[in-house]
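Q: Is it fine to ask for two folds in a single conversation?
A: Yes, each is treated on its own. Send the first.
Q: Here.
A: Result:
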Amino acid sequence: FRANDPSRQYLAEDWGRNILGSLKPGAIIVPSADHSTFPLLYLQAAEGFRPDVLVANKYGTIDDAVFRELLLGKDPPRVPPPRGKSSAEKERYLVQCSGRPVYFTTKTRLEGLPGWELEPWGLVFEAVAKSTKPDEKAHEALWASFRFREGSLRHAPGDFSYDLILADYHYARARWAPLFARLGEACSELELAARHGRGIKEVLNNLGGTLAEAGKPELALRYLRQALEVDPEYDLALKNLASAHFALKRYREGLVWFERALELEPRGIPLWLGKARGLKELGLEASAYEAYLHAWRLSPRSPELREEIEAFARKLFGETSSLAKLGPLPEPRTPGAEAELGYDPGADLPGPAAPSGREPEAWEAQPGLSPLSSIRDGTGGRSPYDPPATP
């Protein structure tokens, strides 16, 4: 009985209490993993702690019942809630229209909200306007307020339920340190997170993504490769690995990883856009133009994407070319592009993807490509540890 007695294990309770205690009054939180969701639900239902907080994602997705709770006792909203719509649309509504502070336990791309981003706030991420500058003293005070029972944070690796929380704890400490140029502290915390996350692909991907965002892509490669050793088809690690190689100006290697990611997610707009930018910077203009058109076919209503493609087309074909302005949705391949350039773009595409779990052959770096932001945004569904849903 002693070996299986968890009655004195308080880490999950302390984890949930510290998360809820760090949120602003009336907050909405979107948890994305069981070890972050269930402690919050227990504390609210059993102990009545922080009843003002709305837990939006109780069952692996944002249920429409959230909007009933959100609008209870209020006049009908000017913008109706997106009942029955995708999780991304519901998240966008909560951030943009709820009038309440919104938090996430993992970092996601806020689709359709270009003026917003998720910034670290203690153990979670807060949706803030992009111009928001982090307050170092406020962050320090928040971390000083967290309380854990004696010995909980020193638990040895090997217990899966402990490891999930402790990996997240050290990962959280690692991601706020770079906000204030504390990279040494961040790397130490990442090593601790890696000890508890060994063999957990989502944790390893998070660590690599954090290092890439902190300007250390060369250190990120190690963790991202380890994530792919666990699962050679893990899409988030493939995306991050592509971006990390681009940041290191190893563009052809990055393109191979983008190709592998596209095999798994052929409708991934950021993947086609990343591929287009990489091909453009390598001087493979026709192939770049074709990849741009693939991205546009998937997102024809994006004014930013249209502007980027048309600017590239004007430079490539000339201001008076019929290809310099996008009209109706084009076919994926535009013969006029190859005709004007005089060569077959397929002949210059990167070679076949490297075998699973192996690093592609290294190519010589080419100058001139601006690093793409790492792709650390999550996918649908729930695993025991849901990844950030990472450009």
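Q: Second one now.
A: Result:
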Amino acid sequence: MSLVAGRTSALLRLRAAYARLPEEVRHCLRPLNLLDELASFLPSSAHAAVHGVTSRARRLRLPARATYAVRRLEGVAPDGTQPLVVRLATDEPSARYWSRLLFAAPPRETRERVLPARAVLADAARTPPGVDLALWQLSWPIGRSVVADVVPSWVPLRLATDRPLCDIVRGEPIGRGSRKDDVRRARKLGLTARLTSDAADVERFRRDLYEPYIAQRFGDAAVLLPARAFRHARRRGWLLLLERDGAAVAGALLEPRGRELHVLAFGTSPTAGDAPAGIEACYYHVIRLAVERGFARLQLGTVRPVLTDGVLRYKRKWGASLAPATTLDRFLLRHRNTPATRAVLTAAPLIVDRGRAGLVALAAARGVDAQAQLRHVDLPGLSSLVLYLEPGVPPPAAAPCSKLEAVTAPLDAAPARTPDVA
């Protein structure tokens, strides 16, 4: 008994000592987190592979634990005229995002039930009638082999930098004047660029520039990188700081991965007076650095899967193209070709992932010129673009970049494929 009591006492002392450790230290001592921490000292390609394994391992228990509230949302489509009915089975942050995106004003919400994550695919097979558009959250490993239109939660954009900087600025005609204006403003700011991997610099950037900027820019929809992501990145990459009189006013956290340079985070001072100008300057100096260091491509981070998203449009202005989506969170999409759905897809054309068929745009041209809509939303990296037209509107001849599939008949059925498990 004394031996058992001694071991119990020792375990209790160890637990008490563990509880007194700082939270960040306790986090690092958990097995998968410790593996991530050790891998952060490896080359970027090896760290990315380990991180991919640990990220998936953390989700293996998700099907048995996660639940999603099933919501019926009723309101007005973005055109302000069409009644719209949407069904969501997602977590709370995703529900807030989709509700704000799809409706002109806050919709009326009815919570129908709580759906276990493992029952998502079965629920999607029996969408109630009268719903214009429905989304079910698929978090890996749920639905990893589903054959259907799925909307990735985030999509990456990349820019070819294996060419002179002046060629990137000159680029294609669309956005050329705006790019040149950005370059002129960046140069007029008179900021000094400095590369650093100092821990104190990185921590100040995270605390004083990155987090305030993201919170101010996105509000309650902000998704912040954890502090450990900054610690890991500085071991393999750099922090580009833009300074005035020795004080940092903007910056970007960068990580080289082979011949690609990845932007992990932007930040600017909320007290600098012109936060957009600081971010514009960051883009210019990061692109200049990628060209000067001989990187073939610059990964500009991820954006929402909406072709009219402001962040996507800004990155696109510099000539960025879509890259394959690698996110572990996706949304299974079902929709009917109704006036309300076309109003949604006119205001917020969606990017869907069709697996081997690549990324496909779902857009519409309700109340706008179809050819002008194509010029506005099409971009490199899409394999095709599905354009829903109003009755009697002739289809455009072609899209600027992608293969065009024009849908002219107002069908009252789901044009997206029925989800099946391969």
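Q: Anything structural to flag on that second result?
A: Two points. Residues 411-422 have pLDDT under 50 and may be disordered. DSSP finds 15 helices and 19 strands in the chain.
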